[in-house]
Amino acid sequence: MALTVDDFDYTLPGHLIAQAPLAERNASRLLGAGRTLADRHFADLAEFVRPDDLLVFNDTRVLHARLFGVKESGGAVEVLLERPLGPHEALAQVRASRSPGAGTVLRLAGAFDVTVQGRVGEFFRLRFPQDENLVDLLERHGKLPLPPYIQREAVETDESRYQTVYARTPGSVAAPTAGLHFDEKMLETLDRHGAKRAWLTLHVGAGTFQPVRVHDLAEHRMHRERYVIPPATVEAIAATREKGGRVIAVGTTSLRTLEAAACHGELVAGEGETELFILPGFRFRVVDALITNFHLPRSTLLMLVSAFAGMETIRRAYAHAIERGYRFFSYGDAMFLTRCDRMVCDAV
What's the predicted TM-score (pTM) here? Predict the structure, then answer.
């Protein structure tokens, strides 16, 4: 039977949507979900990680991607970048009382002008000033974009807490939220435990928050995101395999990047773009375990974790998390998932 978006729905009480981070990064809860469920705290992560395991982190950094301004007519506009296309161009969502046409000039932050080049699907192609790098402009004049389910404006605390402690490559408009639980102390604990670390970059676009608008999932098309996998990461994964260790993706962004780069069989280093849509029945080639947050109903990320751990496992885990009052979404709690046996996954 073909899967539909209704197969990935659940009811979440609004008070479980985390609106702010906890005082300490690793104070969040951690649900181990496999054949049994284990309630832990993120500080206990080493209980789930074995010596010789390799954790793969996404080192992207969130841009100040939200800008406010006016059209030449005086009408207000709000711009949210989807992704940079180069040092002076970007795709963006533009909210205005009337959609701006090609050639429209927008004055942003009262400081600089951008020109609308045209439409690319749901997004607008914008040209930024040529005399300064786009990222530098955003850092000076933009605002940190919090997810739409966080019902408040970004404050000073978010400047650090909506970034991972290892963020270093600017380009995302949303954080790889599984990484938000890690602090330097946790990384040192894992080092002492014998686990290894590797890095990749996937720049998360605003499309990650776009709802699935089709009933039949075979008709859904993912947004494109750019990634980089260094040769050292491919080498670290090969060395981990030789030692019998596991590859643990820190977040769905790391998982999608690795699986996209291995979709033809062998994991390949380099740069690329992915629009990989992972549904139950997908053949995972690289990742053995996954650290991830809880995801929105009817979302592509919920579909991904259902493919990875099994639909029944995820349904059981989410029901348990709701009953026990876990905190959901970006500033919420985390899960540790092990890849299920493929025959079991395909059977549910």
Answer: 0.94
Q: Which residues pair with 226 in a beta bridge?
A: 273
Share of the chain above pLDDT 90, in %: 87
DSSP letters spanning 149-171 = TS-S---HHHHHHTS-TT--EEE
**Length reported for the chain:** 348
pLDDT at 173: 93
Handedness of CA 300, 304, 310, 315 (dihedral sign): negative
- CATH C-level class of 66-143: mainly beta
**Domain parsing of the chain, residue ranges:** 5-62+158-347, 66-143
Contact (CB, 8 A) for 306 and 344: no
What would the pLDDT profile of 209-263 be if each residue is shown by its tens digit?
Answer: 677 889 888 888 887 899 999 999 999 999 999 999 999 999 999 999 999 999 8
DSSP 235: H
The CATH number of the domain covering residues in 5-62+158-347: 3.40.1780.10
Question: From CA 338, how far away is CA 198, in angstroms rounded?
Answer: 19
